[in-house]
Write a structure and sequence with these properties.
The complex is a heterodimer of chains A (118) and B (107).
Chain A: E1 4-7, E2 10-13, E3 19-25, E4 32-38, E5 44-51, E6 57-58, E7 67-73, E8 76-81, E9 90-98, E10 106-109, E11 113-117
Parallel strand pairs in A: 2-11
Antiparallel strand pairs in A: 1-3, 3-8, 4-5, 4-9, 5-6, 7-8, 9-10, 9-11
Chain B: E1 3-5, E2 10-14, E3 19-21, E4 24-26, E5 33-38, E6 45-49, E7 60-61, E8 72-74, E9 83-91, E10 94-97, E11 101-106
Parallel strand pairs in B: 2-11
Antiparallel strand pairs in B: 1-4, 3-8, 5-6, 5-9, 7-8, 9-10, 9-11
Classes of the chains: A mainly beta (118), B mainly beta (107).
């Protein structure tokens, strides 16, 4: 089946620094990838939709300048948390969309990245 | 506005007993509904989608537009079914997740 990886799996950083998280589709090409955020004991919240070769589409309330997304190739999307603060600490999950025949397009999820900002 | 409600945060059943995880939705238009599962220490993965009308691992889910529900059912729960289950609404490229139900199957 389709596999999506994320790197790193966890990261601890100091307040004010920037952190980059990578999301890769390992065995398929994905023109569309998604970034989610999950707070403890809460659901996944879509942050943005990343499209290869174009600007990402951000959900309402998500700061574009805070969460920079780059989808430079068909297998890689990156999320950079700029000037991270403790409130940015969370679990970030990416997914990649594998296109199928009608109604069988499927999102495959990465294992997530735990970000802790001190 | 779209909304997915999973009323039970926790659900425990005995092995061999029937299990039903509830999901209600609010959506203007024709919804696409999914169930995702997350086993311990594993990533989120698609379990089934309503369009496919299939049974996966013994689970089925029927879309009831009158009751705006998409409950997940299995007649005989197994220990390996213990996991976090999320109901999701929308298209494959625009998913909106419920808050999830943690199912524990007691041996």
């Amino acid at each position: 089946g389709a596999v999506v990886s994320q790197h790193p799996s966890w990261v601890i950083c100091k307040s004010g620094t920037s952190v980059k998280i990578e999301c890769r589709s390992l065995d398929f090409q994905a023109t569309t990838m998604f970034w989610y955020r999950q707070f403890p004991k809460q659901s996944l919240m879509l942050m943005a939709t990343s499209n290869e070769g174009s600007k990402a589409t951000y959900e309402q309330g998500v700061e574009k300048d805070k969460f920079l997304i780059n989808h430079a190739s068909l297998t890689l999307s990156t999320l950079t948390v700029t000037s991270a603060h403790p409130e940015d600490s969370s679990f970030y999950i990416c997914s990649a969309l594998q296109m199928g025949t009608y109604s069988t397009d499927t999102q495959y999820f990465g294992p997530g990245t735990r970000l802790t900002v001190l | 506005a779209q909304r997915v409600t999973q009323p039970e945060k926790l659900l425990s059943v005995f092995k061999g007993a029937p299990v039903e995880l509830k999901c209600n939705y609010s959506y203007s238009g024709s919804p696409e509904l999914f169930w995702y599962v997350q086993y311990s220490r594993q990533r989120l993965q698609l379990l089934l989608r309503h369009i496919s009308r299939e049974s996966i691992k013994g689970f089925t889910a029927d879309l009831n537009k009158g009751e705006t529900s998409f409950h997940l059912k299995k007649p005989f729960a197994q220990e390996e079914d213990s996991a976090m289950y999320y109901c999701a609404l929308g298209g494959a490229n625009n998913l909106f997740f419920g808050t999830g139900t943690r199912l524990t199957v007691i041996p």
